[in-house]
Amino acid sequence: MADQPWHELPASIADVLRPELGDVAREMIESVATIPAYSRPLEGPFGEGLRAGVHEALRHFLAEIQAGGAVSRPDVYRALGRGEMRSGRSLESLLSAYRIGARVAWRRFAEIGVAAGLAPDTLILLAESLFAYIDVLSAESAEGHSLEQSAAAGEAQLRKRRLVRMLVREPPADPDAVQAAAAEAGWPLPRTLAALAITGSHRDAAIAGLPPGTISEAIGDLTCALVPDPDGPGQRAATRRAVVGAGARGAVGTTVDWTEARVSLGRARAALVLAGPEPTLIAARENAGELLLRSDPGLAAELAADRLAPLRELSPGSRERLRETLRVWLAEQGRLGAVAKRMAIHPQTARYRLGRLRELFGELLDDPDERFWLALALRVS
Fold it and tell me: Domains of the chain: which residue ranges?
């Protein structure tokens, strides 16, 4: 059978069926009203579209029978599919309407054909043609529904991307404007969130695997994702799997109220500097001290230079040995034996070095506050 079997029907059949088209269309429309999704008064744009679709289908079906080939027609059925999507209905209701309408049309066409004395073979071909024609209309409506669905998804995604930019902008956006944008994007503002900064060529794959509800946008040379309820059960692990599993490099900022999203992003950006070349996820919360020191490198360097000034006049070798001894001595809380063991030196050597440090630093080594600043200065240097 040909793809358009109605082109093989005798042209005279169109003349037989045409006088009854009005009654057939009316019965088809009445039958469609039995479908729950359409069981309402056929008024307004919906009713007009339905009537137009039924009448156009019957008119065009007969026109192509009469012409024995293709006849142009309006793009009604893709529009019907789009309309179903915009109305929030699945395509199944419309396809059910097509099937029910086709059965009604065939019953009436069979009655008319028998009364007109059409041959059985012609009636069989007419039935095949009618249902094949309905399949064509169904495919067009499915395409329209799919196109509208894609367009709606694209628009929704665009709204979410705009929302990300609003949440992380500096200066902060007006809270009322953010709430309105969130409602428009269909993204309930979470009680808490964390910003995730992702870089590298695998950013898109990482974003695709993040926890549900995450929204993202490309900002500069990285992608910013906002993860709702980041400390909830399994959220941290899922975020890490998504980033590292995709082969990307990322950093997650501290957990904040949604009004402080820009703060979380700032910390994520800062933490990203700590990430090496391999796939990883750095947490700003776990590196807060390092980030604090890096927030003002100049001031941190001045602190280190000032606190470690007693070592300045030593030779490079002596300065390095005493600096390492001081670092270990502070870490071991003054336990000389532990210092010697950790540095793999003789206890007498450790004792000599500590005596040298006391000559240089004096009573500072006995002051808890000064010991804290010395440890910090050693970390900076």
Answer: 5-151, 190-294, 297-380
Nearest to 280 by CA among 253, 229, 255, 246: 246
pLDDT digits (tens, 9 = 90+) for 274-332: 888 899 999 999 888 888 878 778 887 888 899 999 999 999 999 999 999 999 999 99
CATH class in words for 190-294 = alpha beta
Place of tokens 């970390």: 379
DSSP per residue, 2-54: -SSGGGGS-THHHHHHGGGHHHHHHHHHHHHTTSGGG-S---HHHHHHHHHHH
pTM for this prediction: 0.55
* Alpha-carbon distances, residue 210 vs 193, 198, 215, 216, 231 (angstroms): 13, 12, 9, 10, 14
Report whether CATH 3.20.20 matches the domain 5-151: no
Compute and round to an integer the Cα radius of gyration of the chain: 38
Contacts 24+ apart (CB under 8 A), 163-167: 163/187, 163/215, 164/215, 164/216, 164/217, 164/219, 164/224, 164/225, 164/226, 165/217, 165/219, 167/226, 167/258, 167/261, 167/262
Q: Which long-range contacts (CB under 8 A, 24 or more apart) does 171-178 make?
A: 172/259, 172/262, 175/259, 178/258, 178/259
Tokens of 342: 């950790």
